[in-house]
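Example S7 (C-alpha cells).
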C-alpha cells in the first residue's frame, strides 16, 4: 500500500509518503501558522522525492484535530481536493492518537496545551478537552510511562516517573502507519473539535444560510 499522510493540525506542516510501512520521503516544516502556504509544496516535494505519482496512491490520510482551527481545516481541504482529483480513499487521523503512535512507550498519554488553562488529553479513554486540574487527576489514575505533546510538561506533576516528550507534532512514520492501518472510510472525514472554535464562518453563526 502506498500512502500520503498530511498533518497541519499542530505545530508543523508535514507530508510523508510510505510504501508498505516504509517511509519513502518525509517533509516537515515546524510552524505556528502559515500551514496553508506550506502544505501543497511539502506534499509535492515528498511525492517527487519518493518517486511516486499522485495517481499511484492507494490512500491519503490527514489529521483532523484537535489542534489549530485554521490549520486543520486547511489540511483537510487540501487532502479532500487531492482525494477527489485522483479518486483516492481519504481517512482521518486523530492528532492525539498520532502523538501516542509517535512514542514507543507501553502506556502513553498525549496532551496538547489548548491554552486558557485547558488541555486536549488522551489517557486510556476517549480524547477530551479538560481543565488542567481535571486532566492531572486523569493522568494520575492512568499512570503513564510516557507523556507526549505540547502539554506534557503541564501533566508531568501527576506522573513523576513518566518520561516527558514535549514534541509539538507527530512523527512522519506515525502518521504514515496510522494512515495505512485506518479502517476503510465510510464517508468524508470532518474536523475534530473538542471545543467550539473561536472563529466561525457567517453560515456557522447563522448570519447567512
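Recovered sequence:
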Amino acid at each position: 500500500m502506498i500512502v500520503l499522510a498530511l498533518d497541519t493540525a499542530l505545530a508543523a506542516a508535514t507530508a510523508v509518503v510510505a510504501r508498505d510501512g516504509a517511509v519513502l520521503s518525509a517533509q516537515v516544516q515546524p510552524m505556528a501558522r502559515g500551514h496553508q502556504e506550506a502544505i501543497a509544496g511539502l506534499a509535492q516535494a515528498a511525492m517527487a522525492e519518493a518517486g511516486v505519482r499522485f495517481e499511484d496512491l492507494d490512500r491519503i490520510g490527514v489529521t483532523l484535530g484537535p489542534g489549530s482551527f485554521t490549520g486543520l481545516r486547511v489540511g483537510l481541504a487540501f487532502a479532500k481536493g487531492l482525494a477527489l482529483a485522483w479518486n483516492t480513499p481519504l481517512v482521518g487521523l486523530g492528532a492525539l492518537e498520532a502523538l501516542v503512535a509517535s512514542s514507543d512507550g507501553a502506556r502513553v498519554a498525549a496532551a496538547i496545551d489548548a491554552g486558557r488553562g485547558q488541555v486536549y488529553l488522551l489517557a486510556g479513554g476517549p480524547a477530551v478537552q479538560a481543565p488542567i486540574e481535571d486532566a492531572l487527576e486523569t493522568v494520575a489514575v492512568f499512570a503513564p510511562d510516557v507523556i507526549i505533546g505540547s502539554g506534557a510538561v503541564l501533566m508531568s506533576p501527576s506522573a513523576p516517573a513518566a518520561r516527558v516528550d514535549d514534541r509539538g507534532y507527530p512523527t512522519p512514520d506515525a502518521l504514515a502507519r496510522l494512515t495505512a492501518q485506518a479502517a476503510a472510510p465510510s464517508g468524508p472525514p470532518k474536523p475534530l473539535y473538542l471545543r467550539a472554535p473561536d472563529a466561525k464562518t457567517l453560515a456557522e453563526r447563522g448570519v447567512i444560510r
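Notes on this example. Confidence is low (pLDDT under 50) at residues 196-205.
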